[in-house]
Amino acid sequence: MSVNRLQTNLLKIFLVIISLITGLSIDIYLPSLNAIQVHFDASYAAVQLTMSIYLAGFAIGQLIWGALSDRIGRVKILSMGLTIYRNKNNRARFSFKRLIHDYLNIITHKTFIFCNLALVSAFSSLFAFISNSSHIMIDLIHDTPERYPFFITANAVALFAGGTVNRWLNTRFDSISVITCGALWMMTGAMWMLINSFVFPGGIYGFIGSMAVCSFAVAWVIPNAIAESLTPFTESAGSAAALFGFLRYMAAFFVANMVSYFSVSSYTSLPISILICSAIIYTSMKFYLRYGADQGETVVILR
């Protein structure tokens, strides 16, 4: 194996590990939500709020670090984030006015508007399930806590399977068609879950199966929406990605809290929220095709 190929493979492994940090920090915390609720004698909504605060902080931080990465480089920002390292000789110098200009250029772009709606909706659906899963499975469906990790693993397998199928779909169909099809699959899973919540409210396998269908489809929507969204922003990828991250985490903050608020005695709010999100994805893609993207236009940031 050549040195360049070895370095490329090591870089891929490193990037995968870095991308897992956010999910890992959430997944480690999730199983302890019920124990925290009991220990502090707190309401479920209050415990859920701790995760929402994490999401809000994570979302706001991306707006700052994304803009900085466009100016002083991705590697330096990554090093600063991982090691809390300060390089005084390379301090970022940019004005608040330029920062607003960059974000306004991105957020008013047609491609950003429509594709980001799809991305935000898909991510919000997935996170609404993840953040409320322990409450629904243990408190509402009354399944055992010992089986909770296995059902979460089943959902992860569905995501992985959806991503694998997505690679095959991308070789035969365009991104917009795959996203639209993913939205229809999400609607199917959400309808199954909604019916299950009324007919078999204590049916754990119906709940997990329907959510697996939704997660399978989410794995089609998110990567294609990201790829399509970032295409016009070759010169401002950091700022665009930061804005994507900010909006999707703030939307997840809102949707997850709405689901937890209405999931006191039933989990019908979860399939309803997924239905709404999937409808937004489908509609946004139809509008995107109808009104067209800003073809050939590249957004450039101010230096």
What does this structure look like?
- Helix content is 79%, strand content 0%.
- With 303 residues, it is mainly α.
- The chain is globular and about 50 Å long.
- The model is unreliable at 84-94 and 295-303 (pLDDT under 50).
Distance between the termini: 40 Å
Runs with pLDDT <50, length 5+? 84-94, 295-303
- Using only C-alpha atoms, the radius of gyration works out to 20 Å
Main β-sheet: number of strands, strand sense, barrel status? Answer: none
Mean pLDDT level: 77
Strand content: under 5%
Class by alpha and beta content: mainly alpha
At CATH level 2, the architecture is: Up-down Bundle
Number of continuous helical runs:
11
Name given to the CATH homologous superfamily:
MFS general substrate transporter like domains
User: Number of domains in the coordinates?
Assistant: 1
CATH topology: Growth Hormone, Chain: A
CATH class: Mainly Alpha
Shape: globular
List SSEs in N-to-C order. Answer: HHHHHHHHHHH
Helix content: over 70%
Quick one: how many beta strands?
A: 0
Q: In brief, what are we looking at here?
A:
With 303 residues, the protein is mostly helical.
Secondary structure blueprint with pairings:
Layout: H1 3-29, H2 33-39, H3 44-72, H4 74-83, H5 96-107, H6 110-140, H7 148-170, H8 175-199, H9 204-230, H10 237-262, H11 269-291
What keywords describe this structure?
303 residues; mainly alpha; disordered C terminus; Growth Hormone, Chain: A; 0% strand; 11 helices
